[in-house]
Amino acid sequence: MTVKSFKILSLLLAYPTVEIQAASCEFSDILSGEGLVPDDHLPPLRALIEEYRTGELLDLQERYVLLFDRTRTLSLHLFEHVHGESRDRGQAMVDLQAMYEERGLAIGSTELPDFIPLFLEFLSTLPQDEALDLLSQPAHVIAALGERLARRESNYAAVLMALAAIVEADPKSTEALLEEPDDDPNDLEALDAVWEAENVTFGPGSPDEGCPKVDGMLDRLAAEMDAPPADAGTSEERA
Q1: Which of 42, 70, 138, 184 is most open to solvent, judged by the fewest CB atoms within 10 Å of its CB?
Q2: What is the predicted pLDDT for the residue at 203?
Q3: Is residue 195 predicted with pLDDT exceeding 80?
Q4: In 159-193, which positions are buried (b, 16+ CB within 10 angstroms) versus exposed (e)?
C-alpha cells in the first residue's frame, strides 16, 4: 500500500501555486483518514492548511522565498545539510537519482533529487514499510529543520515536525546540525557567498474559488491517488 500522506506533506512544502491552493481543502481529510501522521501533529498541520487555503497567494509565495530560498540553514535540499558543497554531495545526488529512476520516477532537468518535496513525492509511490525506512535515513536533517522553523514561529514547522514524529531521529545528529548558526535572510551579501546552487522552482498563479479537482499531479489526490504515479512532473520557473 502506498502512502498518500507523503504526497500531501510534499505539496505543503512546495512553492505555493494556484493548483495546490485550490486542492488544499482536501488535505486534512486525507491526512487524518490515513493515520500515518500522529494525532497530536494534525492540529498544527490543519492550521498551515487553513493558512494556505485562505491566504493571498502572492503573500504565501513571498514568505516561502524568504524562508527557503534566502536562508541556507532552512534549505529544503537534504544534502546541503549533510555534505554542503563537497564532492560527496554530487555522488549522493547521482545515487539518489538512480534510485528514483530504478523505481520509474522521472524528474525534470531543473530538479535536484534531494529536494524534500520531491523526495516525499517519491516516498508516496512506495510501499509504506519501504517509505518509512528511507525516511528514517535523513530524519535528523528533517528534525533540525523543523526545530529551526519552530524557532521562527513558522507554521511550516508542522510539516517537518510531523515527518520527524513518523520516524525516530538520532538526537545527537539533530543537535549537531542545530549547533550551526542560523542565517540572516536580510544579509544578502553573506547569502550570495554561500548559495552556489539554484533551488528547485515551481510556477506561481492566483487562487481559484472553491475546491476543484485540478490537473496534473494534484488530480491524483482524488480518484487516482491509489495508483503509484509514473512521473513526478517537471517544474516551471518562478516569476
Answers
A1: 184
A2: 32
A3: no
A4: bbbbbbbbbebeeebbeebbeeeebebeeeeebee
Q: Is residue 235 part of a domain?
A: no
Judge whether 201 lies within some domain: yes
pTM score, whole prediction: 0.74
- pLDDT at position 227 over 70: no
Has residue 198 got a pLDDT over 60?
Answer: no
Do residues 238 and 203 make contact, with C-beta atoms less than 8 angstroms apart? yes
The residue among 162, 147, 137, 158 whose CA lies nearest residue 6 is 162
Domain-located, residue 54: yes
Residue 106, domain extent: 4-225
Within a domain: residue 239? no
Q: Count up the domains in the chain and report the number.
A: 1
User: Hey, CA dihedral for 88, 90, 93, 97, is it positive or negative?
Assistant: negative
Report, as an integer, the average pLDDT of 215-225. Answer: 41
